[in-house]
Amino acid sequence: MTECDTAVIGAGPYGLSVAAHLHGRRADFRIFGRPLNTWRTAMPRGMYLKSDGFASNLSAPEPGATLADYCLENDVPYHPTDEPVPLETFIAYGLDFQQRYVPNLEQHDVTSVLRDGRGFRLTLDTGEEFRAKQVVVAAGITHFASMPQIVDGISPELVSHSNVHRDLERFEGQDVTVVGAGASAVNLAVWLARAGAHSRLVARASSVKFHNRPSGERRTLGARLLKPGSGLGPGAIGYVLGLAKAYTTRVGSGPLPTETAGPDAEILSTQGAEFGTTTGRPRRCGWLDTVVLRYAARLNGLTELFLSKLDVLSSFDRIPVATAYRIDGEVTEDWPMTQTEVHHAEPVYEYFDGWREDITGVTRFEDLPRAARAYVEAIEKLSGVPVTAVFVGPGREQTLLREPAGAGGATVTGGATVTGGATVTGKSGKA
Ligand SMILES: Cc1cc2nc3c(=O)[nH]c(=O)nc-3n(C[C@H](O)[C@H](O)[C@H](O)COP(=O)(O)OP(=O)(O)OC[C@H]3O[C@@H](n4cnc5c(N)ncnc54)[C@H](O)[C@@H]3O)c2cc1C
Questions:
Q1: Is the pTM of this model over 0.85?
Q2: Ligand 1 pocket, 12 CB below 6 A?
Q3: What residue's CA is closest to ligand 1, atom 35?
């Protein structure tokens, strides 16, 4: 059986880009799939890309491989933001990219991947079997097409997923309803109308957006990294610092599962000076809620956490920390899916020893009372984020820096957007 170092499955934008870099490094690899197959078979002919020209590049190890370069060389109209990219242009660019940077593409499907010792055994649709030390799966989005349950049992002639429609001529004269609020749905509805169908778009959304108008605004590198124009989410950000209080507060109404009342609330509120800076409104106070903290850490990709106002907890004998919620009898450590569940959430507490000692003069983390250190270490564990500084008062000198306790930083990387929608067709106009 033959063997290679790396097998890449899929020849869409991601697979081809990975392969272009492997090829550039003369790595021992094989790549499989029909080039740009999703784009050539699962999107309506005539469609425009939602992504701007500047955000529609494949990645190669050398300059000259962008969509702009391709358009310039081939006399195709191009603008980074103001000229929509036709699907056919993107496909032509992708195929040209494949020929130039991934000449060894094998246009076969991989039918199975099995663990085999420290590597993998792969089988192709030709029946060939071979081994690879590592596998990159870039098999794309079409495998994730899903239809809402509500249409179960209706003939595929009448209801189908948008990704099975490339040529729309067969809908000429028919009444077609497209269900969805995203760019795919809008695109499809428009191209159906152009193909002579009576097309209608139904969306469970207050507005339907295809794209934002380019703002023309100049943005800093930081702003562009955090919120790239591609709509794919933040890119390669290696360091995200979060700041949390050692307890929880909330301004205004709404759920606050760990809210406390009576003397405890009084202590948190007065010792922590929990009054709105502008309005002077008292903030509602409660114990630390690590369900929220974990959720915030995950959403924001936190790699480090600073914990403030530890000194405010110095007057308690024992300190509750919410580690989970009990919602209608069920215990969960995860942030609930619905607002109603948040309203029903009761905290499940773990109790930590208090330290009952003034810590505002402490200048090194190691000099904090054992119980205070244990509290910080517990938060680190419960949040999954290393706590690298603790504040024991409002002064700068009251910041205690700390080495992360072995927890490594995470990298937040962008992913692919999966889009889709269902088309409902009918001749009677009552579909
Ligand atoms: C209607 C529509 C419009 C879109 N518009 C945009 C847009 O404007 N801009 C944008 O950036 N993104 C857009 N997207 C999203 C875009 O299609 C995906 O983000 C992108 O294609 C993902 O690239 P990929 O390489 O991961 O997967 P794909 O492009 O899906 O490629 C995967 C490839 O792997 C192959 N493959 C799958 N299984 C196997 C196997 N077992 N063996 C061998 N090969 C296999 C497939 O045939 C395919 O060629 C759109 C998607 C849709 C549906």
A1: no
A2: yes
A3: 10
